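Example record

One chain of 310 residues, shown exactly as stored in the release files.
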Amino acid sequence: MSAVLRFGPGVLLAALLPAQTPAPQPQALRLAESGRCAEALPLLKNGAGQPAKLRRDFQVAGVRCAMAVNRPADALGFAAVLQREFPNDPDVLYALTHLYSDLSVRASEELLSRAPDSYQVHQLNAEALETQGRWDDAAKEYAAIVQSNPGLPGIHFRIGRLLLSKEPQTPEQLEQARAEFQAELKVNPQHAGAEFVLGELARRDSKFDDAIGHFANAVRYDAGNPDAHLGLGRSYMGASRFKEAIPPLETAAKLQPNNPETHFQLAIAYGREGRKADAARESETHKQMLSRAQQRRDTITKGVQGISNP
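Predicted structure tokens for this chain:
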């Protein structure tokens, strides 16, 4: 008697069903991958009803195709969807990095082609030289701008910043920088950055009344800058005006709660005003922040040295 092979119903059903094949790729993506971007773009714009992954793939392909056919406005439309719906996706961030880099290169090439003698070309060159640390060459570009456009806002500030970037700093160099920031304020009286740097230079020279004036202006023109509030508070502290130092330091702490220097200054100011509980709280916060910062440095050092935690 021959043996009878018995199969469960699931096995039998699987045997009867045809082998499953992957779902066909949508036509829009097939066209995009084959380089037929002009045909693909209208279809890629209709990806709103697709599942999440496919919708992402439509938008990424749309960015690449739009740039391939020189339609940057369409590329930015696809990019806006990607940033809104997939802000943390590595593929999306990679695609956006290339998009913005390509747009920057194209815009700079267009500027150089259409207006080669414009001050904007000199400024673009100067900014590129700054990123390379070529301070003297960048300063020459900015000087050319000032010569042809003496009333242009922002250029004296950039020259002053260049002078402060060069090492070593000499007294003459600092004076030149200060003069550039003051020249910026004549062109643009509400330049918060120039007021801030002038305030910091005055504070370092212990000219606290001058520093207070500059930092107060910096805060007035840019109320969301925590460093300006901190600088104002530190200048009041230097002038022994501890009660007046507290409000800007408290504002700085709200705007940038993780800056240990702000909590250190607040602890001193509270202590000088007899607010012992507040001073103790800020002092403890300062210590905790320093401890956490040291732990992070130790972790990074161990990682660099290849030492793993036990």
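Notes: Confidence is low (pLDDT under 50) at residues 1-23.
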